Each structure stands twice: as C-alpha cells, then as structure tokens.
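[agent] plan:
  1. take the single chain provided in the ticket
  2. run structure prediction with default settings
  3. attach structure tokens to the ticket
  4. add a short note for the reviewer (M.T.)
[agent] executing step 1
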Amino acid sequence: MAHPAAALNVEPGKQGAVINNHTSRARGGHVPAGERVLVADLDGTLLGGDQESRLQLRRALERHPEITVVFATGRSLSSVQTLLRQDPLLPGPRWIVADVGASVIDAADMSHIDALERPLRMGWPGHEHVRETLRGFPQLAYQNVAQDGRCSFSLAPEGLTDALTAAVESMRCSWSYSEERYFDVLPPRAGKGPAVRQLVHKHQWPLSSLLVAGDSLNDLSLFHLHSHGVIVGNAEAALTERAPDAPLIHRSRLDGAAAILSALQHLNWVEPPAPVVIGYHRAPARWSDGRWEQPSSPNGILPTLTSILGSKNTDGGLHAVWAAAVTAEGHDSWPASFPDRLPMALLPVPPSRWAGYFHRACKETLWPALMSQPHLIHHDPAHWADYEHVNAAFADHISTHAAHAATVWLHDYNLWLVPGLLKRDRPDLTIGLFHHTPFPPPDVFRALPVAEQLRTSLVQLDWAGFHTAVFAEHFHQLLQDTHTVPRTGVHPLGIDQAAVAALARSRTSHITTEDSLLVLSVERLDYAKAPVHKIRALATLLDRQPELRGRLRFRLVCPPPEPGIRAYETTRIELEQAITTLNARWSTGEWQPVEYIPRSLPFTEVMDHYLAADVFWVTSLADGMNLTVQEYLTAQAASRRAGILVLSRHTGIAQQLGNAALLTDPHHPQDLVDALHTALTMHPSHRMANSARLLHLLDAATPVDWARAVVAAIGEKPGSGPAPCTYR
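[agent] step 2 finished; step 3 output follows
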C-alpha cells in the first residue's frame, strides 16, 4: 500500500486516501482533536499473526485514517522500504523509527529528521569504532545489513557476558538484547522509547492518544512512555516479565496483528466493518463555507439514502456506511465529524482525475448511450483510463469498509466497473446496483467502444435494479448470452409525499393570482431534457395561436451542470439563443414569453413555482422516474389546485401514469405543440378529474420503504422466493 502522501494518486489496486467520520490524517504530523497514534514494532507485531488478522487490521486502519501509524523497528530504512513495496498487508506509516531508535524518518518523503536524530545520536563513536572495540569478542557475529547510527550483531544467550557489556559501556554507548539472538550497540540516548518521545514532544501528542505495541525486549522502552500499550501474545517472555505492571498495558493472548486490532477495539478507536455499504459517486453532504450542507429537497437519491442511514435510527435504519468519491481539493479544511447519522467514508480524487472520470468519461462516453443518443458518444482512451482508475480505487475503498458477507449497494453507471473488480477480490460480498437512469436497448449499449468491458463487469452483479420493467428487460437482453444473468428487480422510486404536501400547504399564501397561463419546467441543463425542443414548440404555438400573446408565460428553471462538464455546452448555447430570439420577437413592454432561471433554487422557491404553474411540461428524450413530476402533482393536490401534466412518453414515470397524463413525444415537434395546446385549453372540470386521477396513480414506494425493499432484494438468496417488486 502506498504511504499517505501518495494515496491521493488513486492508482488501480491501491487504497485511496480515506476520510470517514473523523478528520483526515494531519499534514505535518500534528494530531487534531479525535486523532490517535499507533506506534508498533514490525517483526512479530504488525507482521505477526495470520494473514486474515493482518488484513483485518490493515482495513481497520484504512477505515480510520485519523489513526496515525508509526513504525518502531530494529530494521533499517532500506529494509522497511522493501517491506512496504512487497507486503500488501502492511499499513502505510506516517513516521518511521528505525535502527532500534537511532533513526527517525518522515515517511511522506522517506527523509531523516535531523532535528530529532541529533540528540538521539549524541556521543555515538561511529560504526567502525564499535566494531574495532568489540573485535576481541568472538561470540559476536556481525550482521551484514544496512546499519545507521547503530551496530548490530547476532549473539547466543551464553555469549552475553559482563565483559561484553562493560566493553560497550566503556565506549559510553547503550546496548539492547532481544529474542535471545540480536545484540545492538546504540548511541547512549537512543532507543525506540526515546525516539518516540521525541516525536511526542515535537508534535504535542497527548499520551492518552498513544497506543504502543511490541513483542521483543528492544520494545521495552516503549512501555515506559506511560501510554496505552499492548504486548502481543507471541512476545518473548522477557518482555512480558520486564514490562511495567500498569493498568494501561495489556498483555494479550492474541498474536501480532490480532492483538493490536483487539486493543484498538477495546479503546473504541476503531469501529467494525459495515454489514451494508452504499456506493455512490456523490456524498450525501458537501462542505461549503465552513459547514456541511445537505440537499434542501426531501426527494432524490441523496436524501432518500440518508433517511435510512445510521445504526441508531429507531425507525429501522440500516447499520451502513456511505462510500463516496469526492474531489480532493480543499478536503484538509473539513472538520472532525460529519452531520448526525451520516456515516460517510469519502474517497478523495484529484481534480484532474475527477475531470477525466466524471466530466469526460461519464458524461461524454456513457451518458449519450444511456439517453439513447449514440451519435453523441465521444470516447477518449485517456479519460477512460481515469474512469478505470476511480472505479478501481472505489472497489478497494468499498472492500475496506465492508464486513465479511456484507451487502454492497452500488448506484448508477458511474461505478459500472466496480462489480467485476470487487467480486474478484471479495467473492464473499453480495453486490447490487440500482440504475436511476434509463438502461438503453442492447444495440445502443453495444455502440459504446467499451461495451464488452462493461458487460464483463455487470455480469458479476448479484442483482440489478431499475425503475421500470422496460429498463430491466433491456439489461436482461444485453446479458442473456452470458453464463449467469444477475437477478433483476423493478422498484419505482417515489417521493416523500407527506413532506411535500406539508410544505405546499404552508406556502399557499405565496401563490399570486394572475390573468395569465403559466407553463413550468424544472430540470437541469441537459440535452436529454430537450429544452431547445420546448422553445421551438412554444414559438410554433405562438405563431399558430397569436391570442396567447401577453397571456402565456413559460418559466424554465434550469440550473447548469457541475463546472467543467462540456457535454451540454452546445445545448446551453442553442437554448439561450433560442430564448433570446423568441423573446425579442414576441415581448411587449411588461411581458415576455420565456422566463429563464439558469440557477439552482431552494426547495421552498421551487415549491412556489409548482403552486403557481397551470401546466408542468416534461419533454425528456429519455429519463428515469423524474421526481419533479411527483412533486408537482403532490403540491397541486395539497393546495387543492388542478394543474395539468404534459409528460414525455420516454420518462420512467410515464410507465406508471400512462394515458392519465397528456403524453407527448419530443421526437415529433408537432406533437409537442399539440399536447401543450390541449393542456392550455382543457376545460376546468376535466382538469380537476385529471388531477385527481394522476395523484391516485402515484403509488411508487416512499423513499424509506423503497430503500429497505431494495436492500432486502439484493440480499435475497436465489430460490428463497421473490422479493417485493421483483421482475425476473
């Protein structure tokens, strides 16, 4: 594993820098509030015990990067560096105390810290002088290893004589004898304990935040620091006998890594891995202007999953962790904790890699296929490499946080390579992936240059979920020629109707009555939403129905995408030009046909627009459930209004509402015009009946029930009977 300074590169197969419910590992070695320090020997300690115990310890430390790791070893720096390259189970250190305490190294750049080493090596006569002085003791066998600030020999127990120790002391040196075979001559003030004490003083680490672990006599000085300590079960008897009999020092029956992990758990420094891991490319909260911000809307994937998180949730919440990728820029300013009931484990990604992964590969290669626009697919191998890197880091990240036989719930196309990578390394996990977007027909999917690579990964899923039976069937058709097709389920996502209705009733006083017709669209800027199609249809309608001039207003709430996404730039330019042209042609002194709001709005303002609108207009070329439709209908009903829904046939919710909505097809321009005209001229009695019927058809599961059903469906064993809404 790469040491922390290199972890942000997020190379495939290496654990990225992880930030969970605590602060990230501090730069410069200082320990912020809540951070801990583990000081451990290597041979017999961190390297001791079985492979599974070492793996569990490494994962626990990766889950808790607030635990700063310090190696305290008799090995040389070069030997430690070789171990770090060759041993994937060895946790990455922040500091290294080497040469039995004669060397102190900053692991960020593997440089010696002269200011700390100088007092430790004071009075050292030099390596060659020691060898020459002890030449008369044939029982000593010089060790041909790299030695810096010490001189190390092999020595049988019977060879440890008073004459030998007197010769060492005559040089004003100290000595250490361990494991009945290693005899080290050291500077008079050197030793693991003194070296660690130098670090403690330099970085002002409180001793209550220090845990030392060792197995041999040359670790003895660590246990005189008056900190927490654990002597591993496989320690040499002399250490167990000579270590202080203090309440802070635990003599474990477990060996090596298992003993360290047990001590960390006893101190409540680490939490167990999660039985459920939610994997999403976005975090449920973002750090902005010195505080954590959560979505203002009660609906959507972020608030939906947040509502079921936390083992302390008395309403049946999941004991789960939310694994998310975020841009690494500025993460050092994050505080030591996250909002209540948000057990987040964040994977920082460098901005340049995030751009290649999300802005390019996701939005320029994959998104056009999902929206059934294969002619817009743009594939760049360099950007696809970023997608592969992030997915590989994500798979490692999830593996670190997932308990044995855990359920992993992935979301969307952003993580399509994770199932294959994760199943390879963790076959014990049950992996599901829910698609919040449409899933395209097989022929469109195969237009992707990376289609086979993606199919190879997706077939490793245990379960795949969709909003509609059509999307599930597309997925099944794509993989039907593979050896095993994942189980699939249809689970339409609903909204928190009670919360939306309550907000709507509280905002009725904000409704303004005007002698005009308001058509509303609320959607992000995206060619798949067909915003330019709307403006062209509106222009045609005004040409055909000039009496609407001065009465019809179209309000488009259309926030821009994340900065850096180029895929929608052409759409933005065309949209703004079309709006400018239409308004210039038709506007009067106090009226213009299009009101364009190109920014995100608080949900309360969105609600006011819902309540004011006579028509809600959705023209997507392809879409998932489209929760804004459900919000509009719920708000209108709660305020006893009867707005009309004009809905694209290509949305997921159209499968649920059917002909109760005024269905339209954005691929046919005249159909857009006719459907909008029908909505604007519908008789009031028909509007009331239509509104009531639409609300009755909103029978999708509430967000909490939906999430619980999906987790249950993922974990269902084949042959145990169908879960609710299971499609195949």
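[agent] step 4 note for reviewer: Confidence is low (pLDDT under 50) at residues 1-33, 720-728.
[agent] ticket updated
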